[in-house]
Amino acid sequence: MTALQAFSRDVADLVARAAPAVVGVEHRRGQGSGVVLAGDGYVLTNAHVARGGGPLRVRISGSRVAAGTLVGADERTDLAVVRVEARDLPVLALSERRLDVGEIVLAIGNPLGFERSVTVGVVSALYRNLPAPQGGTLEGLVQTDASINPGNSGGPLLDAHGEVVGIATAMLPWARGIGFAIPAHTASWVASVLIREGEVRRPFLGIAARGEDLEPAVATEAGHPRAVRVLEIVEGSPAQAAGVRRDDLLVAADGSPVQTLDDLQRVLVLSARPEIGLEVLRGGRRQALAIRPRPPAARAA
């Protein structure tokens, strides 16, 4: 068997294993895709798909359709969880690993209503930002040239092991070969919070910041190739009270590495402690700070 034949066989086997856990999410304005997270009916999709309008239906297969209920949605990441009235569904696990540019990936979804279509490409770039459907910015996206078309939204991006490494979220209609996915390590914690609480409530630090690549010497000091740069401090904020300064590099929070804004948000949302330990690089030197995030405002009744 040639290397090309072996690769073709491996891709076909991977799709056969993964495709049954990919569903269609339909509403009166159109349809998208979703990934079954749990056999008792939890489906991960995009917020802009789940909130498309009207009752939700989940197409488990060509002939099997079940009613869906929105469990929760997070506009900040364009993720949502839908509960479907079905049991013993095949599932796909979300990977926690970080991707590398150039990796082979597969997208499975329902573009233009064509059920469980498969496309193959590579990871074209990482940490892309894109305007969100409801305003704001989707941050830290995976860029891929695996074809993503209307209806793919909410479907999985799979790596060569068949693990979900991203959730398709957007494509640029005027460009070819440029699609985007939410990293699975973001989708994993957001989905768990949505299932548990129905929403993601983010504590307030009082900073404007961005993730950025580090110069080699700085990366060695930080312990990883990226960190979060503080751009502005809000007057009277928890960050100001903790001694965070403009141009600080946030490199760790509660002992967890901080390479992206998502890493920071994850610690803030999941931590049960009132005080968070931050490690920053300032003037080339590592410093430890303690910050007490302000609880998020209560949701309006």
Describe this protein's structure.
With 301 residues, the protein is an alpha+beta fold. The protein folds into 3 domains: 15-84, Thrombin, subunit H, CATH 2.40.10; 104-197, Trypsin-like serine proteases (Thrombin, subunit H), CATH 2.40.10; 207-291, PDZ domain (Pdz3 Domain), CATH 2.30.42.10. Helices cover 19% and strands 40% of the residues. It is built from 6 helices and 18 strands. It has helices spanning 3-18, 47-50, 184-197, 216-222, 238-242, 261-270, and strands at residues 22-27, 30-38, 42-45, 56-59, 65-74, 79-84, 104-109, 117-131, 137-144, 156-158, 164-171, 179-183, 207-213, 226-233, 249-253, 256-257, 276-282, 285-291. The strands form 3 sheets. It has a 6-stranded antiparallel barrel. Strand 15 (249-253) and strand 16 form a beta hairpin. Helix 3 (184-197) packs parallel to helix 6 (261-270). The mean pLDDT is 91. Keywords: Hydrolase, Protease. InterPro entries: Chloro_Bact_Ser_Proteases (IPR051201), PDZ (IPR001478), PDZ_6 (IPR041489), PDZ_sf (IPR036034), Peptidase_S1_PA (IPR009003), Peptidase_S1_PA_chymotrypsin (IPR043504), Peptidase_S1C (IPR001940). Belongs to the peptidase S1C family.
